[in-house]
Structures are given as C-alpha cells and as structure tokens.
Amino acid sequence: MADIIDGKAIAEDVVAKVKTQTATLAEHGVTPGLAVVIVGEDPASQVYVASKSRRAKECGFHSVQHSLPAETSEDALVALVEELNADPAIHGILVQLPLPGHIDEARIIQTIDPDKDVDGFHFINVGRLGTGALDSAFVPCTPAGAMLMLERVRGRDLSGLSAVVIGRSNIVGKPMANLLLAANATVTVAHSRTKDLPALAATADILVAAVGRPEMVRGDWVKPGATVIDVGINRIPAPEKGEGKTRLVGDVAFAEAKERAGAITPVPGGVGPMTIAMLMANTLTSAFRTAGLEPPAF
Ligand code: NAD
C-alpha cells in the first residue's frame, strides 16, 4: 500500500515559508507585488483568479486584480501588460488563460517582462529551464509543485531513476520533463501517439500523468514501488452522490494504483494545491531578485 503524498500539507509549508520570507523582505522595505489579469467571464477562471489573489493577500503581498470585459481588444491588453511591466510595485504578472478567441495568447505572453513572468511561459524562461539555468528561470507552477512533492519521497537527486511523463503540453508535460532531467532522472516523454503506453509506464520508477483523461492510468501500468504523480484534474459524474452531482478524479485510477505504487499523489489534495503555492513562491523569488537579494530555496 502506497504512502499518500499530501499536497495540501506541502503547499501549506511552502506558503508558511513565503510568509516568513515576505516579513524578511519588509525589513528591506520591499513588498512582493502580484498582478493577476483576467479577461472575460469564464467561471472556472474566475474561481482560480480569486483564489490566487486571496492567497497573495494572505502572504502579505501587494495584490492587484484587473478584471477586463470579454470584448477587451488585444492592443488594450498589451497596453495593460506594458503598464504592469513598468510598475516597480509589481514583481509578478499573471494573465489567466485561456483568453477570448480574438486575442493572440502568444503575443500577450511574450509581452510580459520575462523577469516578472511568474507563470514561466515566456520563451526566455522556457529557454532558461531547457538549458538548466534554474537559478534565473521562472519554472511553471504546476510542474514546480510536482517536483517538490517528488522531492519529499525521492530527494533532489534522481540519478539512476527512470521517469516517464505522460503528456507533452507546454504548461505541464514538457517543463516537467526538463525538471526531471535537471534532477538527473532518465526521462521519457509519452503522448497520444506513443505505442504500448502501459508497457512503457510500467518501466518507470517515477510516473507522471498529465493527460486530462479520467483514470486512464490503470493499476497494472504502475511498477511496484514507483512514485506516481497525478497532475490530472477531471470532473466526472457522481450519481452515487445524488442526481447531477460530480466529483474530481485524476488521470490515474487511484484505488488500483495505490496498491502497487510506493508513493502516490491523490486527487483532489495532491498537485492541485501546490500550483497556487508555487505562484506565491515565484512572486517572492522575483521580489528578492529585484531587490538584489538571494531568493530562498523551496
Ligand atoms: P493538454 O490537453 O494541453 O495536454 C494533454 C497531453 O496529453 C497532450 O500532450 C497529449 O498528447 C497527451 N494525451 C492525450 N491523450 C492521450 C492518450 N490517450 N495517451 C497518452 N497521452 C495522451 O493538458 P495539460 O494542460 O497538460 O493538462 C493535463 C491535465 O493536468 C489536465 O487534467 C489538467 O486539468 C491538469 N492540470 C492540472 C493543474 C493543476 O493545478 N494541478 C494545472 C494544469 C493542468
């Protein structure tokens, strides 16, 4: 039976450290500033943005939220990002994705100052991560959080371990693979065109699922003793809870996988809570760098 890696508890540890370090920064006259920008009314995005702003306030940050109407033009959004780039009180800028169809997301992301790009999506940060320049990169929050969870089980050096990442998105799969590589794991990235995925997954000491398909990874895909990191968040019908009710599941069939894994992250309460905690950590890091101080390690 696997150990369950408690994402809520690890996220609280991260946030506690962010709060302490924010107090340290205050002695230097610096308050970390996070600006969150949302365009349109997407209900899921509204919930994410509200919790990001709330967490930032709780950490003692200067927290600013810009909620723009869905019909905002691309040029107006570029102008706002440029204004935030120039604002010395802002250390982190997050533009909530997805943006409405008439706005070119790539243009917006590339407009963000790379040194305020706390989501880690700008080419400069992707390049820093890809070349192993982790001291200057901003690492995307979800894979950064997944690595912290993995570290609790396997330590920082993954030499000799094989890792399989299922999913090759720019937000999760690819940065996760780069982080695992930087930690000396032997990494394979699998995706929708991979042949015989169950057999490949079963070779992994570290198995990361970032697909978006409910419970796709079955128990017999898991190598006995493996560490399983389930990034997936999928809402499925739960008629057992009542008519029209739903519940969240990961990309891994948890009940089966926990019988074989050495350690596993649950959904909910696994990688999910880590994402916002790492956003706070990245914003703090940015404020330390701007102040010319060495940022704390997380
Ligand atoms: P995405 O849709 O951008 O990418 C999915 C990847 O899965 C693709 O690379 C695709 O090739 C691969 N894939 C699809 N079907 C497959 C199959 N049958 N076999 C193997 N690979 C397959 O998704 P994403 O943004 O990377 O997100 C993945 C999951 O992680 C989603 O469930 C999402 O909700 C979740 N997520 C969670 C957090 C968090 O905070 N915990 C953050 C981001 C994403």
Automatic annotation (TrEMBL):
CDD domains: NAD_bind_m-THF_DH_Cyclohyd (cd01080). SUPFAM superfamilies: Aminoacid dehydrogenase-like, N-terminal domain (SSF53223), NAD(P)-binding Rossmann-fold domains (SSF51735). The keyword Flavoprotein does not apply. It catalyses: (6R)-5,10-methenyltetrahydrofolate + H2O = (6R)-10-formyltetrahydrofolate + H(+); (6R)-5,10-methylene-5,6,7,8-tetrahydrofolate + NADP(+) = (6R)-5,10-methenyltetrahydrofolate + NADPH. Keywords: Amino-acid biosynthesis, Histidine biosynthesis, Hydrolase, Methionine biosynthesis, Multifunctional enzyme, NADP, One-carbon metabolism, Oxidoreductase, Purine biosynthesis. Gene3D superfamilies: Leucine Dehydrogenase, chain A, domain 1 (3.40.50.10860), NAD(P)-binding Rossmann-like Domain (3.40.50.720). GO terms for molecular function: methenyltetrahydrofolate cyclohydrolase activity; methylenetetrahydrofolate dehydrogenase (NADP+) activity. NADP(+) binds at G167, R168, S169, I233. Residues 140-288 form the Tetrahydrofolate dehydrogenase/cyclohydrolase NAD(P)-binding domain. Coiled coil: none annotated. Its EC number is 1.5.1.5, 3.5.4.9. Pathway: One-carbon metabolism; tetrahydrofolate interconversion. InterPro entries: Aminoacid_DH-like_N_sf, NAD(P)-bd_dom_sf, THF_DH/CycHdrlase, THF_DH/CycHdrlase_cat_dom, THF_DH/CycHdrlase_CS, THF_DH/CycHdrlase_NAD-bd_dom. Residues 5-119 form the Tetrahydrofolate dehydrogenase/cyclohydrolase catalytic domain. Belongs to the tetrahydrofolate dehydrogenase/cyclohydrolase family. HAMAP family: THF_DHG_CYH (MF_01576). Catalyzes the oxidation of 5,10-methylenetetrahydrofolate to 5,10-methenyltetrahydrofolate and then the hydrolysis of 5,10-methenyltetrahydrofolate to 10-formyltetrahydrofolate. Homodimer. This is Bifunctional protein FolD.
